[in-house]
């Protein structure tokens, strides 16, 4: 199976990325890192817990699946007819893992040797599902325990309560693992349907980083698919319910056995429908904006920290996808309502009296430094890569767009993004 190859370079990072697209639609990327002691590979599909309603290529009617099936499928792929995949990696001295997010499922390993043998294991187990009625029933018990455990986790609860406050209908408000009731409806045939739809090479990407031979990696992947007769697949139409712009609930409170209250404040992004550069620019602007507003060098952070309203658990971030987006900030606090009020007040003050341009330049330089530092960790590069690639954002695009973002863009974006009516607060109180 021959493929077209191209090399993408970035002079600022002094890095190069080799890209090959196979005839079956699989995109393979290799980031050579000479003299690194470790190797990392991540094999991901554009499929997550949000994708429960879709139209299979070649069909007209939508297929609807129970909540939690993407996560269930991730669990089941590790169990092969001849044994558990973890044992195969362990014998090669490698450390495997996987994750299911709202939008992606990924399988990865880190190795310090036997890399090409490990790559074979990765390709083979992701490419060969083995489900039986008996093993599916057994897995339901395991995942039920996992769901119950997370429901008692204060950090998990405060997070999902906020999502329920921000969203009326979008599946992002649903737990990635599903519910105890929803996973009982999952069958072997459903798993095979989701696998055959979303685990097609056209819907997947393989990323490899480390001291590896890019040509050898690509040729190994091509050999794996040779003779399998897999041709490109048409587009999968994912279906999501209509989501109104307003939040579902401005405040949600819950009680758990915690020593101090936990809180999360969220702002719903209503400018959705963007991909590629437009989405990346918004991600960068929000990243800088949050650092300037509530980062550890900000006036507001210093004030709240000195008053004992927040501690080092406080953090903030933006999640941006094509069909939804939100800013979240939070942590532990003896008085969450006061923290939220101070954030609202600071936002309104800054709309009248914006930051100076020098502060913007300083935070922008910090972001450039953080991005360059990321390239010291193969795992961080790989996970970041797969979070971007399905949004049509390249690995080097961030630094290129970050260099071009200016102060006027930030001011305009800040005034447009933050509206109190688009916000929701989740609080966990001690019981």
Structural class: alpha+beta
> Largest sheet, described in full?
7 strands, mixed
Average per-residue pLDDT, rounded, comes to: 96
Total helical elements: 15
The CA-CA distance between the termini, in Å, is 61 Å
Note poorly predicted spans: none
Strand percentage: 15-25%
User: How many β-strand stretches?
Assistant: 17
Tell me the Rg in angstroms. Answer: 23 Å
**Largest sheet, spatial ordering of strands:** 1-2-3-11-4-10-9
Measured as a percent range, the helix fraction is: 40-55%
Shape: globular
Verbal overview:
With 431 residues, the protein is of the alpha+beta class. It is built from 15 helices and 17 strands. The strands form four sheets. A seven-stranded mixed β-sheet has the order 1-2-3-11-4-10-9, sandwiched between helices. The chain has a five-stranded mixed β-sheet with strand order 13-17-14-16-15. A hairpin with a 4-residue loop joins strand 2 (15-22) and strand 3 (27-32). Helix 3 (115-126) runs parallel beside helix 8 (214-225). The longest helix has 19 residues, at 133-151. It starts with a strand and ends with a strand. The model has no long low-confidence stretch (mean pLDDT 96).
Summarize the structure.
By secondary structure, the protein is α+β, with helices and mostly antiparallel strands.
SSE diagram, text form:
Layout: E1 3-10, E2 15-22, E3 27-32, E4 39-45, E5 53-55, E6 63-64, H1 69-77, E7 79-80, E8 83-84, H2 85-91, E9 95-100, E10 105-111, H3 115-126, H4 133-151, H5 154-166, H6 180-184, H7 188-198, E11 204-210, H8 214-225, E12 237-238, E13 251-256, E14 262-268, H9 276-294, H10 299-306, E15 315-320, E16 325-332, H11 336-352, H12 357-374, H13 378-389, H14 397-404, H15 407-417, E17 423-430
Helix pairs in contact: 1-7, 3-8, 9-12, 9-14, 9-15, 12-14
């Amino acid at each position: 199976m021959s493929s077209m190859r191209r090399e993408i370079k970035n002079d600022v990072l002094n890095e190069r990325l080799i890209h090959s697209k196979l005839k079956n639609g699989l995109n393979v990327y290799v980031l050579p890192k000479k003299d690194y002691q470790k190797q990392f590979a991540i094999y991901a599909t554009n499929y997550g817990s949000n994708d429960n309603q879709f139209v299979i290529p070649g069909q007209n009617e939508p297929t609807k699946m129970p909540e939690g099936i993407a996560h269930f499928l991730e669990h089941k792929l590790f169990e092969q007819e001849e044994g558990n995949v973890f044992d195969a990696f362990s014998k090669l001295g490698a450390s495997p893992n996987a994750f299911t997010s709202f939008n992606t499922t990924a399988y990865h390993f880190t190795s310090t040797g036997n890399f090409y043998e490990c790559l074979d294991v990765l390709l083979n187990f992701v490419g060969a599902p083995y489900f039986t009625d008996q093993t599916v029933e057994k897995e339901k018990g395991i995942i039920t325990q996992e769901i119950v455990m997370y429901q008692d986790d204060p950090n998990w609860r405060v997070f999902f309560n906020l999502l329920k406050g921000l969203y009326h209908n979008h599946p992002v408000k649903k737990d990635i693992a599903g519910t105890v009731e929803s996973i009982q409806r999952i069958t072997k045939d459903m798993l095979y349907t989701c696998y055959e739809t979303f685990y097609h090479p056209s819907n997947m990407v393989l990323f490899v980083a480390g001291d590896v031979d890019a040509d050898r990696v690509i040729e190994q992947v091509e050999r794996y698919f040779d003779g399998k007769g897999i041709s490109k697949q048409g587009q999968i139409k994912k279906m999501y319910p209509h989501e109104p712009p307003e939040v579902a609930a401005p405040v949600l409170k819950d009680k758990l056995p915690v020593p101090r209250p936990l809180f999360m404040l969220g702002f719903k992004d209503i400018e959705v429908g963007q991909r590629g550069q437009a989405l990346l620019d918004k991600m960068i602007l929000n990243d800088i904006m949050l650092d300037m507003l509530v980062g550890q060098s900000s006036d507001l952070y210093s004030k709240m920290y000195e008053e004992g309203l927040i501690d080092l658990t406080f953090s903030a971030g933006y999640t941006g996808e094509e069909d939804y987006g939100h800013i979240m900030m939070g942590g532990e606090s003896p008085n969450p309502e006061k923290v939220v009020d101070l954030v609202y007040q600071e936002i309104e003050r800054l709309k009248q009296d914006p930051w100076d341009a020098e502060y913007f330049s300083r935070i922008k330089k910090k972001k450039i430094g953080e991005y360059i530092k990321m390239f010291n960790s193969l795992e961080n590069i790989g996970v970041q890569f797969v979070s971007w690639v399905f949004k049509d954002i390249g690995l080097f695009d961030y630094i290129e767009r970050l260099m071009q973002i200016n102060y006027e863009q930030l001011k305009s974006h800040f005034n447009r993004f933050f509206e109190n009516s688009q916000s929701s607060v989740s609080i966990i109180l001690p019981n």
